[in-house]
Amino acid sequence: MRKFYVLLAMLMVVSLVLTACAQPTAAPVVEEPEAPAGEEPVVQPTAEVIEIVLNPYLGSNKLDGNGIPPTFFDDVHIRKAFAYCFDYQTIIDDVYMGEAVQSKTLSLPGMPGYDPNFPAYEYDLAKCEEEFKLADVDKDGVPAGEDPDDIWEMGFRFQMLYNTGNTTREIYTEIVSSNVSSVNPKFVVETLGLPWPSYLAAQRAHKVPMMTGGWLEDIHDPHNWYQPYTTGTYGARQNLPEDLAAQFKALLDEGVAAIDFDTRSQIYTEFNQLYYDQAVGVPLVLATSHGYEQKWVEGRVMNPIFSNIYYYPISKPTDPSDPGVFVVMTTGSPDTLDPALSYDTASGEIIQNVYETLVFYDGESTSEFVPQLATEWTVSEDGTVWTFNIREGVKFHEGGDLTASDVAYSFQRGLLQGGYSSPQWLLAEPFLGVGLDDITAIVDEWASADDRESLMANDPAVLVAACETVKSKIVADDEAGTVTMTLAQPWGPFLPTIANGWGSVMDMEWVIENGGWDGSCDTWQNFYGMVSADDPFTTIANGTGPFKLDYWTQGQELSMLRFDEYWGGPAALEQVLIQDVSEFGTRFAALQAGDADIIAVPAEYRTQVDPLVGVAKFYDAQTNTYLEDQNICGVDTSQLGEARFTVCDTPSDQPLRLYYGRPGLNQDVLLFTFAVE
Fold first, then answer.
1. 515: exposed, middle or buried (C-beta count within 10 Å: 0-12, 13-18, 19+)?
2. Phi and psi at residue 616, in whole multiples of 5°?
3. Looking at the structure, do residues 191 and 278 belong to the same domain, yes or no?
4. What is the spatial distance between Cα 211 and Cα 227, in angstroms, rounded to a whole number?
5. Which pLDDT does position 174 carry in this prediction?
6. Helix (H, G, I), strand (E, B) or coil at 214
7. Within this chain, do residues 66 and 198 fall inside the same structural domain, yes or no?
8. CA 619 to chain centre
9. CATH for 411
10. Residues 397 and 501 in one domain
11. How far is 674 from 677, CA to CA, in rounded Å?
12. Domain with 102 in it
């Protein structure tokens, strides 16, 4: 069985980019082309698309071996059977080359509710068979193993879809198909690849009995994972029964409203248990990240939620070529430099260094925050009112002084113009309410997310009222130097939500001067749902960060220069060059010559680079941090994962440092549709 999958794995190796330092904020595996972070892009299904994806084995409502009834997956034993029939270790060894771990919960290390010892379904064909025989698909009260009219004797057939271009998901479907048929030859799961729009349309129309769905986290918090997989994006597509959906929603509402870490952990542990018991979905694997850098690089701190780099603490004093210039050779270019609209990984790396947020992550911690543009903050007893004291003496790169009004304007602008396909939905929920994830949700029924024309067709008074609602929730007091934010409800992950690029602060006067929103409630709709091509701030930037934009030759090179007036003191590096170099051979040659400090290393080239590793920092799951440097005195490229490296006390003269082992920030889940239409 495993050898069969090896062939498939060899075909998909090109699609795996596991370097933590390459594609700036990407998870270790470059997943589907749908979305760089979080939810997939909104794709409106057309009649043509729906026609393509009609499942030919639905509709008879009979168990005749040639189909399944629409409620096939509402039997928990069926769902558990498929969970036991999935070969997790084959995926880890043959697809991820040993550089992955099985997911046990939807949550990740460092999150409330994460438990490395939580039970997980294991590959066990005997249990798979047992669960199939316990199922009562025809609802006559007799288990299938004792019923000649149920699935064990009758068999079934359905299609499992995957999105073309995602070889990992294609292999998932092949594993399911092969393993299920090995339990009972009468069980047939056909695999079908569809273009991404068609794949999405099939899901949303509840026409996919079983599917895989992937998520790349936006914030390192359970809410960002549990909501999509139960009541949000994927949960809606699964057609969960009302009573089960209500249980999940109650836990979600309780969990996101709690502030205390321990309290939230208890709530999400209960959530994990319900998700596991009901087998609503089955978490698969988490790729373990890796990234390479020259050993002369000093001061690097791994961003706790993204793999992109915060360059401020970095220096390279022993670099023989140029200690002041830091060169990163990667693949891909930013989509936009506008913090309100940036939702791609390459853009996030630039924005994180040019702009700043009110608070920022404390080193590698996923739960502790330090002041950035805010010096301190307070929270009301009920957890709904946050007051931030804005740092004095901060300069924008173009010379303006930071004010509380700049902060309030930046948040208002993002909420009003971002649109659902932008990251602003993450801010909309805490300010507007759970499920109200776009400004159009409070306009009226005629407004449609991401549709500016539909929005502008509304009564101008209604549009003004929506804008005033947003403004009332984010109020600046320039004299006191404070910004007060009023949330719709207590929001436990509020700090991590505003600590990311979409919470960046812009210079209000500069934005207006360059053609941005003028701050009036009479005009905001003209900027709603703006795409990068129309956005004047796609290619220009003016932040308060330690680096300022120097130039950007799109598709080739972007340069950031040290901002000497930075309030935190000048950075050690004088310049950061991020170069888009598609050929690995060119990147590798630059790394060997010392002309690049970091390069993107796709998985298929790891065996070439690993012998150059002289120092490694291995991830410790118990502390959710990387260990201190360990000397590497030997590399066996025939071994998988961490086993390929030999640790010793003797320093090595090999030039590279490797960061290895942290579970990635994205994962796929097997999902079952309870009622297929």
1. exposed
2. -130, 145
3. yes
4. 18
5. 93
6. strand
7. yes
8. 20
9. 3.90.76.10
10. yes
11. 10
12. 37-286+666-672
**Where on the phi/psi map is residue 419: left (φ > 0), alpha (ψ -120 to 50), or beta?**
left
> Residue 213 in 3-state DSSP?
strand
* Phi, psi (degrees; rounded to nearest 5) at 191: -105, 140
Residues 6 or more apart whose CB falls under 8 angstroms from that of 399 comprise none
Cβ-contact 430, 424 below 8 angstroms? no
In a domain, residue 570? The reply is no
The string of DSSP letters for 450-476 reads: TBHHHHHTS-HHHHHHHHHHHHHHEEE
How many Å apart are CA 102 and CA 86, to the nearest integer?
11
Look at residue 461 in the predicted model and tell me its pLDDT: 95
Query: Could you tell me the two tokens for 268?
Result: 């999400």
- Domain boundary residue, one of 502, 531, 560: 531
Q: Are residues 118 and 254 both part of a single domain?
A: yes
pLDDT of residue 621: 76
* Residue found under tokens 């999940």: 248
Quick check: is 434 in a domain? yes
Q: Are 343 and 531 in contact (CB under 8 A)?
A: no
Q: Contacts from 201-205 at CB under 8 Å and sequence distance 24+?
A: 201/43, 201/45, 201/46, 201/49, 201/50, 201/53, 202/50, 202/53, 202/161, 203/234, 203/237, 204/45, 204/236, 204/237, 205/45, 205/50, 205/53, 205/677
SS3 of the chain: helix, strand, coil, percent, to 5: 35, 20, 45
Determine contact, residues 44/204, Cβ cutoff 8 Å.
no
Q: Could you tell me where the beta strands, DSSP code E, fall in 426-516?
A: 474-477, 482-486
Q: Which of 349, 290, 303 is nearest to 19 (CA)?
A: 290
Q: Dump pLDDT digits (tens) for 309-356.
A: 889 999 988 766 778 999 999 988 899 999 999 988 889 999 999 999
Q: Domain check: are 282 and 411 in the same one?
A: no
Task: Answer yes or no: are the C-beta atoms of 657 and 292 closer than 8 Å.
Answer: yes
- The ranges of the chain with pLDDT < 70 are 1-56, 58-62, 303-307, 319-320, 445-446
The residues, any chain, with a CB within 8 Å of residue 388's CB and separated by 6 or more, are 358, 374, 376, 377, 407, 482, 483, 484, 485
How many domains does the chain contain in total?
Answer: 2
CA angle 151, 1, 170 (to 5 degrees): 75
